[in-house]
Each structure stands twice: as structure tokens, then as C-alpha cells.
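Appendix B, record 7
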Amino acid sequence: MGRLSFINEELTAMKEAGLYGNIRTIESPQGPWVTIEGRKVLNLCSNNYLGLCSHPRLVSKVKEYVDTYGVGPGAVRTIAGTMSIHVEFERRIAAFKGAEDAMLLQSGFCANLAVIPTLVPSEEDIIYSDELNHASIIDACRLSKARVIRYAHSDMEDLKRVLEETKGQGRRKLLVTDGVFSMDGDIAPLPAIRELCDRYDVILVVDDAHGEGVLGRAGRGIVDHFHLHGLVDVEVGTLSKAFGVMGGVIAGRRELIEYLRQKARPNLFSSALTVPDVAANMAALEILEESPELVERLWRNGNFLKEHLSKAGFDTANSQTPITPVMLGEATTAKEFSRRLFEKGVFATAIVYPTVPKGKARIRAMVSAAHTEEDLLFAVDKFSEVAKDMGVL
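C-alpha cells (predicted):
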């Protein structure tokens, strides 16, 4: 149809620019090795940081809860969808994170949509947002009617500048930042951000998607990492990465959580998290409550991979976490590099524009606690072989 002709035109343009994504289908459980197209390949793509996606304790807990509670919640939380297991998980995750209360949602994306438009809904409000914030933060800011002011990535001088320029303006002010920036693996300077927010009377929101289960004591997150308990207004987390399941969580003071329960649209108009999801998240939380072993193993693996890739001559940028970007520059180079890696048995997806800026395409290697050193050395060997074949080192 003529009115939809732009679709094929834009798809063709994406392919010609090397920006079209080849979405592969996994035919096995998530793990350090997965089956794709009938082949077993090393998995360096997933956010399964602790290897919990197919952990037997999570599987067992799901079976137990499904037998007891069924599968679906049947309604939104505010009508008839709040089950005792939702309330128990919220109590446990709040205690784990050292917060007064917590709210469970359908995803980390929904958690950002619940927080930002609810706290700053008016044209008279102002949002300060790091220029490299995740798409869910950007979309949440768009849903708010507030004026959005971007500041240079983790640049405290630039943040101070925009705060000073807007001093005395606006009704409510809110700053939102990722805790760990997922494409580069660097950590937001949260203590300095908090100090500026206190000085200029700004609500502080940190999206800890890639810090949940990774940073802090036994994965308690970025607030715990920086010892800022009670000093960050809102913690947003996701349960689809280190926890290995699905869901989002908001933690903070009791009155904040009560306010969001009453007013946040994802809580009012979208059904509650399913029973299997809650069960698996509960089991993941129990594992973290019991021991920091998986978190410590994740960090050892991340440091091991970075060290050996750097020795091989690769640029792994300035990552401060187990996220390991391998910088390649152009989208077409990164796409071809990923394709050749797959042929050699390594599943590592190219990250290109618009996910990262043009000219900063990369392979983002995501390690987990489930990888062995032999797995990671295999990866380094294959990265080196492809780099030699393509002449990029």
C-alpha cells in the first residue's frame, strides 16, 4: 500500500547502512553456551550476569508456587491482582536493599514509566537527564510534560552549570541517571550527583538496571556500593538481568512508594507480575541473601576477560564493571566482526547506532558468573582470529 511504502524504503536504507539487526533465535536455556540454528555457541550477549536464568533453584521455586498459586494474577494490583507473594517479595527486596519499602512492577522499563511522569507531570517541572541515559528513561521523560535538560555524560561541571542556570525556575525538579551505563560499563558518580541535588533541592532518581545484583554487597546495588542508604530518593531496578527473570522494582521511603502505588499508571492499568516470575525472583533473591559468591565470580570473570582482550590489543574503553565493550568504530565493521565470530562459535552481537553514537560501534561482551576461564580464553582466541582476518588490529 502506498501509505505504508515508507516501511520498505526505511528497512532497505537500514540494511544499506549496516544498521539492520539480524535477530537470532536461541533454542536452548540461557547459559554460558546456547544453541542457535542447531549449533552450540559461546554466549557473550545476554544480561544473565549471575547465570540464574536456568538455575535449578529458580525452576524448583516456580513449580512450587505454580502448584500453590496458579499462574496469572488476574488483574491490576489496585483492583484484585495483589497477591501475598507480591507483598512478601516487596518486603524482602526492600530489606535486602536497605530501603523502607519497595514496589514490584512488570519490568524495569515500566518502573521508569511509573516514577518519572508521576513525580514530575507538569509543564512547570524540570528533568535533568544524563545524555547517555537508557531509552526507558528517555521515553519516561517524553511521557512527562516536564522540560527535559540534558547534561554531558557524568560531567559534574556541566550538571552544576545547568542547575545554576535554572536556579529558581520550575515547580518540581528531578534528576535521573543510569547507575551503570550499559553500553560503556561505567558507573555514575552518584555521591557527587547527590551532593548537587541536595544543594539545588532536586529529587534524585537512579536507574540501577545493570547494578542490581552486580554492585554493592552481594549485589545490593549502586546505593549500597556508595554507602548512600537513605540519601537517594528513588532507586529503580530491573529483575531481568542479574536476577535472571522479569520484573522491575522501585525502592525508597515508605510514603514515596505509597504515593506511586496510588498514582503510577503502570501499577494502575497493567496487570501484576505473574506467579512464575515472582517465584523465580524470590529464589534469586534468596541466593543473593545467602552468599556473595556468584557476584564475586562475575567480577573475577569480567576482570579476566578485560585483561586478556587488552593484552591481545583490543580497546575495551573505560568500563568499570563486568560489561566489556570491544570498540570497532563503524557499524559495518562491527556487524561483519559479529558475523565472523558466530561462524567461529562465539555469539556476540554488534552494538551500533542508534544504540550508540555513530562511529562508536562495538561488540559488547557480556560475561556471567557461569562462564569458566576456559570459555573466556576461547572467546579471546576467536576475537583475535577475526581481528587478524579483518585487519582491525
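Remarks on this record: The first strand starts at residue 33 and ends at 36. The domain at 56-290 is CATH 3.40.640.10 (Aspartate Aminotransferase; domain 2).
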